[in-house]
Amino acid sequence: xxxxxxxxxxxxxxxxxxxxxxxxxxxxxxxxxxxxxxxxxxxxxxxxxxxxxxxxxxxxxxxxxxxxxxxxxxxxxxxxxxxxxxxxxxxxxxxxxxxxxxxxxxxxxxxxxxxxxxxxxxxxxxxxxxxxxxxxxxxxxxxxxxxxxxxxxxxxxxxxxxxxxxxxxxxxxxxxxxxxxxxxxxxxxxxxxxxxxxxxxxxxxxxxxxxxxxxxxxxxxxxxxxxxxxxxxxxxxxxxxxxxxxxxxxxxxxxxxxxxxxxxxxxxxxxxxxxxxxxxxxxxxxxxxxxxxxxxxxxxxxxxxxxxxxxxxxxxxxxxxxxxxxxxxxxxxxxxxxxxxxxxxxxxxxxxxxxxxxxxxxxxxxxxxxxxxxxxxxxxxxxxxxxxxxxxxxxxxxxxxxxxxxxxxxxxxxxxxxxxxxxxxxxxxxxxxxxxxxxxxxxxxxxxxxxxxxxxxxxxxxxxxxxxxxxxxxxxxxxxxxxxx
Length: 485
Fold this sequence. Notes:
By secondary structure, the chain is α+β, with helices and mostly antiparallel strands. It contains 13 helices and 21 strands. It folds into 2 domains: 9-309, Roll (Pnp Oxidase, Chain A); 325-475, UbiD C-terminal domain-like (3-Layer(aba) Sandwich), CATH 3.40.1670. The strands form 4 sheets. Strands 5, 6, 7, 8, 9, 10, 11, 14 and 15 form a 9-stranded antiparallel sheet that branches. Helix 4 (88-100) packs across helix 9. The two termini are 21 Å apart.
């Protein structure tokens, strides 16, 4: 599939149906039931199906919620325009090369767009018209903003940023907003607040997968994700200019809002609790003890029969994304930092990152481990780093654990580094550090490699070789239920 053929979420859904399992579920409840079903599916089914919820309790047919969009790596491949029949590790490398080769293409403004099929302004605004979910039992409300894109512009340079931040549905025209410190969207808001002004913003809920992926990418300040997604698509992203804010609105989004984020001293609300990606209720008011920013919604636009993309975090045993693009970014960053012979990179868990190298010199493994700490793709969340030899598949957690159990001597092959950049979402962050806004923690690096000085004398592996294993699996696949995952 060509990388520029998918313009919206609907085309993505139809393309996915051809290569991956999916289910339509009718009659489920937005209040906890859909969230619990998504989590159970992700946890209990290898390569879980994409879930399309329709006829949701209290909502008309056609107002849908899409779940587990990227929970099977074949679906991520479709989103990126990569061949979905390749292995996960191959796809990580192909994704890395695709991301590395991106040449920014500015968006193009169009006069007509699907997003303008319906509009609400003034007293007609009612965000409760959409089936926003309450996903976790302890959530403090409903969240329309999980699979979202948040757009604002720096008042000094005009730089336009896209990010993904959670948005709570407080009222028919008021959203709660949680943005971690140092996120570009928050930095832009603060520049307005320092002048006593509200920050104009746009947000979409349901959009083509590359636009959503770009909004999650760790792109340096001043480099617009709008141009980056154009490069990923190999053609410009179509936008309209918001009549209220003047900001770009992706033309093929499902739902979009225009509004403003006032200084928190002018208006703020308690936000959350909300189940976050570490698997705990964190961030927002519960994490900081303070009310959080809000978005005053000035206009709402939506397509006929809109689709909300649900990306509410799950506990780490129920993965939402089965092909990590950040792993691809890290692979490129490691090579750019001069780490030689990187043969695999993956993060099977938000806190766990594995890098495979072909050792070339003494200290090679340590160089790789410390480079992961420094790289922007992994610096904030890489609490545990495992450096492994080239025979270990970094996408296979069983192989990573085997290397840790058999190639690590605890006294000499584990290193702890303190004072590293983290996030207030970390459940292990002491309350006193949060209060002082000292969002740092320690990291552990496992050098799960054959010791360089006597690697040739290390015991030989007894496991069947990959070629033999692939041969017998292919030969007897009709008789035994081998998993493709």
